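Supplementary notes for students who missed Thursday's class. We covered one full example, reproduced here. Read the sequence, then the structure, then the short commentary at the end.
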Amino acid sequence: MKIYTRTGDGGQTAVIGGRVDKDDARVEAYGTVDELNSFIGVAISGLDRGKYGDLADDLLYIQHELFDCGADLASLKQQEGRPYKVNADMTSRLEQWIDRYDAETPDITRFILPGGTQASSALHVCRTVCRRAERHVVTLAKSQEINNEVRKYLNRLSDFLFTAARLANFRDGVEDVAYERSGEVFKNRS
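Structure (token representation):
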């Protein structure tokens, strides 16, 4: 099998149910999800398995789910007999993981600056790319049919990635840096 097909040389690409221009809102949405998946791969590659094995496993699981997001976004409409792949249970699982990792980290009341350790910084990059993917999905949903569970999943995933970035700093003994001009915006967990 050849990796190149030449079918996209004219500026269009195949999606499930037809062909669209490569700059179509649908392609922007699933393309940004693909970009996020690649950045998560970078983040995983920098994690010490001894210290972050649980997080690395969760991130790998998320990579598979991001392929599901991409497949749903690449569908012009829900195909008869082919249910969407992304569902509410996936978002609920992210919430459970967020709660578990959040319980391990110290409370924050202010916005924090992205950064700290290499692992935390990589996860913050993933978070911002996730937010961009979510914005593209919102734009797409204004004009075309989508699986709304993808939007919910990406929204919760950005929260997970924020929590994971804080966890990385905490496990490495590095304090998050509070944005010094921030008011108190988060409530304590207690």
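Commentary. The radius of gyration is 18 Å. The beta strands are 12-15, 18-21. If anything here is unclear, bring it to office hours.
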